[in-house]
Design goal:
By secondary structure, this protein is of the alpha/beta class. It is built from 18 helices and 14 strands. An eight-stranded mixed beta sheet has the order 3-2-1-4-5-6-7-8, with helices on both faces. Strands 11-10-9-12-13-14 form a six-stranded parallel beta sheet.
Length: 461
Amino acid sequence: MFCQLSIVLRVCNSLSMERLVESIRDRSLRLTVLGSGYVGLPTAVLFAEAGFGVVAVDVKQEVVELVNSGISPIEEPGLQERVKRNVLAGRLEATLNSQADLRGTDAVIISVQTPIYKSKRPNLSFLKKALEDVGRNYHDGMLVIISSTIPPGTMANFVKPRLEVLTGLRAESNFYLAYVPERIAPGRALQEFVESPRLVGGIGPNSTRVASELFKTVCKNVIETDAAVAEIAKLAENTFRDVNIAFANQLASICEHYGVDVKKVIELANTHPRVRIHTPGPGVGGPCLPKDPYLLIGGVKSGRRDIVRIARWVNDGMPDHIVEMILLALKDAGKDVRNVKVTVLGTAYKADVHDSRLSPSKPIIQRLLKLGAKVVAYDPYCQESFGAERAENLQEAVQRSDCIIVVTDHKQFKKIDLSKLKEYAEENPIIVDGRRMIEPSEAKNVGFKYYGVGYGREGLA
């Protein structure tokens, strides 16, 4: 009798899975995306573009109203027209988190933030709330996908048991559960969502198959694995980049000591076919790189040889290094920080985006303000000024400025006319180049004192 029941259950589960797969292929599957931020909204829009009916859920009334009006609340190339097109076509709508009814949906993609506490431990409270929302509105045969970046073991030890308790059902038998980490960057979100290889890691083969079928409708290259491998692979990607940047930043400090230009060193080192050193800078910002290394190492015992933690320390220390370089430059020029105007070029955390999350500009500006400097910030993309006076244009920003700091590598800043800049600035002006975007000889030729990350004390004018 028990064997017969097991066979019946397996057949029912197989039929349920095949119906779900068929609904993906004929686009009758109803999809809900929990979280309509920098990752969630592009996700919702691209699946709507693929022909699915999609509900985007968010906690902010303003976001919901904008999306339902056909307006993207996020500045992202190509997103505005796609939001409008799919709302008008009836494939995309938004709703408040408190009003979301998931009982009419077949698949849920959870795309909520997973920040860290001040202690650097993971904060999974937003994920927990999303799981509770799913569990409260659950039905048999649903597909649940986590796209948020999570610590190793979260799918097996946090997500799966919570959903099973909340629903009274079993993962892989009564519902399907997979981890599909995002691999996109602001400014290229839509393109990278489609073109970057996408990891799909189910908690079992059935979950992997169903989730893979769904993402193949949008992504050009889907790589199937299991959830545990996908969790660590995602964190390894960003942690590797953070460690590489830390090496570049330490190399820059070494070059400063020996009076050697780090740009030339890296250029020559990278001619080796097995070497690819990143570019040094004023620090690492954004929602991922400063956080993800801590998610990777948080569950293991650390020691003195913890390269990941040391890399975080190096990169977090770069804004202070920039400030020390500014103070050195002012001292060399016989100027007191309390009597100068400092211009900060760039408050976004990376080039050509509107996003200022964890930007290295913030600690640089805040420390300069504490030291008594007058600080003016200018960014052609980002409205954030972190307490500095915000300039509307470049000329206003550098007018009568004693020291100009390049913090963000916007393309617009690469085209700056240094002669014009010199005309607007105070006498004996200083450039502190945190991104090494400006050619030192050109800056010196028009009358600037040039200081740059990894430029070398002996090479300073």
